[in-house]
């Protein structure tokens, strides 16, 4: 079966209320089209990240990205957990996402991780607009990543990310992950996290 004939996955959220189509369509793929990401598209992703809000406009986010075939890509793969290594090499681009831990006055930037997340939200939706799937990964050995990529003191690698155009073939994944990839996306109901007036025990 070639890529054109292969089963492609769509995981449109079954929303309770109508929302922006890109949010409905987004999911975290483990299979990607076998094609590099165009450089102009990568710049658009970083541009979307660039214009995110951040506490005091500190813009604490930093990224290291690597294209498949490069030495940096191989190094990045070696920082991933065994589970993530089992699928993330399907991605044409891998990335480390880091944030600066201190403010310019040397105080702890308590909101640094928040701002990194917000900027990655921007990037993820921009990616969706360009038919690029982003799969965020906590399963990364950040100590190894700091060492291999000479991340300076004061910065912390929070996650790794696999990116690529949607359209990979399901068959590229081991059987258990094929099932996972085809599963319906599910979420807790709004009443369990959006509380009016008082905190509610659920
Ligand atoms: C911060 C973060 C860390 C994650 N870490 C991993 C990971 O290490 N490996 C993995 O396969 N998926 C990881 N995921 C993906 C989540 O499992 C996924 O977003 C969640 O199951 C919801 O699925 P959806 O994104 O397709 O809606 C991570 C997601 C986020 C946001």
Automatic annotation (TrEMBL):
Keyword Zinc attached: no
Superkingdom of the source species: Bacteria
Protein name (Swiss-Prot/TrEMBL): Nitroreductase family protein
PANTHER family: NAD(P)H NITROREDUCTASE YDGI-RELATED, NADH DEHYDROGENASE_NAD(P)H NITROREDUCTASE XCC3605-RELATED
Residue ranges annotated for the Nitroreductase domain, each copy included: 23-69, 81-165
Cited Gene3D superfamilies: NADH Oxidase
Keywords per UniProt: Oxidoreductase
Coiled-coil portions: none
Species the sequence originates in: Bizionia sediminis
A Pfam short name: Nitroreductase
């Amino acid at each position: 079966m070639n890529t054109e004939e292969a089963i492609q996955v769509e995981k449109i959220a079954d929303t309770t209320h109508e929302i922006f189509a890109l949010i409905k369509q987004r999911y975290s793929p483990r299979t990607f089209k076998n094609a590099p990401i165009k450089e102009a598209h990568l710049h658009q992703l970083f541009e979307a990240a660039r214009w995110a809000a951040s506490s005091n406009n500190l813009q604490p986010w930093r990224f290291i990205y690597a294209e498949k075939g490069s030495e940096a890509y191989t190094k990045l793969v070696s920082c991933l957990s065994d589970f993530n290594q089992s699928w993330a090499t399907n991605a044409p681009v891998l990335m480390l996402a880091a944030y600066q831990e201190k403010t310019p006055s040397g105080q702890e930037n308590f909101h640094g991780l928040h701002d990194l997340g917000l900027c990655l939200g921007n990037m993820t939706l921009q990616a969706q607009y360009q038919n690029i799937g982003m799969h965020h990964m906590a399963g990364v050995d950040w100590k190894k990543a700091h060492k291999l990529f000479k991340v300076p003191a004061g910065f912390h690698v929070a996650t790794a990310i696999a990116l690529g155009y949607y359209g990979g073939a399901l068959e590229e994944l081991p059987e258990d992950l094929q099932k996972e990839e085809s599963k319906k996306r599910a979420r807790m109901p709004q009443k369990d996290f959006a509380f009016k007036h008082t905190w509610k025990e659920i």
